[in-house]
């Protein structure tokens, strides 16, 4: 999870100021793995709480929030493991829901990115174990020349396509929605699909000798 330091307007920070622990009814605890004092969110009595994630071990961000009297909690939200969160009180529930949803989506994206990176690294390690050497790809002149020839052939083949077929190829390359592109061109999705199929077939014919 990546820390995202949120700079909050001073008026909001002051509204979150903890005058005294007794007045706020806060129960401060020490995390066993850290010297960071954390708070139980339920003791804050915030009407519309939202939680800003802090990367575990990011002491500087935690200190920033603590200096501004922003409560920090060490809790598990949804299906995530325990993490540090700065706790804010929004003016409305709608705003709190928006902020929580936004940070939740960021956290899920971070998790997906880490999983993808781990899978890539694992796949690469397996390739190395099976004898793959990246230097062979870089230093092999025959591979470099062959790659350049294929790229040039593809560029020439694309130049020979009609504008309609070229647009269909760009749609495929950019992973655009057929619905949106058909609407943009003012044609039916079936017509666009036919153009795409014809373009792919034509390119295949032009490049078949390079397979």
Quick rundown:
With 211 residues, the chain is mainly alpha-helical. The chain is built from 9 helices and 5 strands, in the order ααβββαββαααααα. It has 2 domains: 100 residues, no CATH class; 77 residues, Arc Repressor Mutant, subunit A.
Mean pLDDT: 75
**What is the makeup of the main sheet?**
3 strands, antiparallel
> Alpha-carbon distance between the termini?
43 Å
Derived structural class? mainly alpha
- Counting DSSP H or I runs of 4 or more residues, the number of helices is 9
By DSSP, the count of extended strands is 5
| Whole-angstrom Rg | 28 Å
What pattern of helices and strands is seen along the backbone?
A: HHEEEHEEHHHHHH
Could you give the order of strands across the largest sheet? 3-5-4
State the helicity in percent bands. 55-70%
Shape: elongated
* Low-pLDDT segments: 1-34
The count of domains is: 2
* Percent range for β-strand residues: 5-15%
Which terms summarize this structure?
211 residues; mainly alpha; Arc Repressor Mutant, subunit A; 2 domains; 3-stranded antiparallel sheet; two-stranded antiparallel sheet; 11% strand; elongated; disordered N terminus
Task: Outline the structure in words.
The chain has 211 residues and is mainly α. It has 2 domains: 100 residues, no CATH class; 77 residues, Arc Repressor Mutant, subunit A. The protein is built from 9 helices and 5 strands. The chain has a 3-stranded antiparallel beta sheet with strand order 3-5-4. A two-stranded antiparallel ribbon has the order 1-2. A hairpin with a 6-residue loop joins strand 1 and strand 2. Helix 7 crosses helix 9 and helix 8 packs across helix 9. It is elongated and about 70 Å long. The N terminus is likely disordered.
């Amino acid at each position: 999870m990546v820390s995202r330091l949120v700079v909050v307007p001073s008026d909001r920070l002051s509204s979150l100021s903890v005058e005294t622990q007794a007045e706020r009814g806060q129960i401060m605890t020490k995390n066993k793995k850290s010297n960071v004092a954390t708070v139980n969110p339920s003791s804050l009595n915030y009407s519309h709480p939202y939680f800003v994630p802090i990367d575990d071990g990011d002491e500087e961000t935690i200190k920033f929030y603590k200096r501004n009297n922003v409560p920090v909690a060490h809790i598990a939200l949804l299906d995530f493991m325990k993490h540090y969160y700065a706790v804010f009180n929004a003016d409305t529930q709608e705003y709190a829901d928006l902020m929580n949803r936004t940070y939740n989506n960021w956290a899920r994206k971070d998790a997906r990115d880490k999983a993808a990176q781990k899978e890539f690294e694992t796949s690469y390690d397996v390739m190395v174990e099976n004898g793959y050497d990246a230097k062979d790809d870089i230093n092999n002149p025959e591979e470099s020349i062959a790659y350049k020839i294929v790229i040039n052939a593809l560029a020439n083949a694309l130049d020979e396509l009609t504008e309609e077929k070229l647009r269909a190829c760009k749609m495929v390359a950019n992973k655009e929605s057929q619905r949106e592109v058909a609407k943009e061109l003012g044609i039916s999705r079936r017509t666009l699909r036919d153009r795409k199929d014809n373009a792919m077939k034509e390119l295949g014919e032009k490049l078949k000798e390079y397979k």
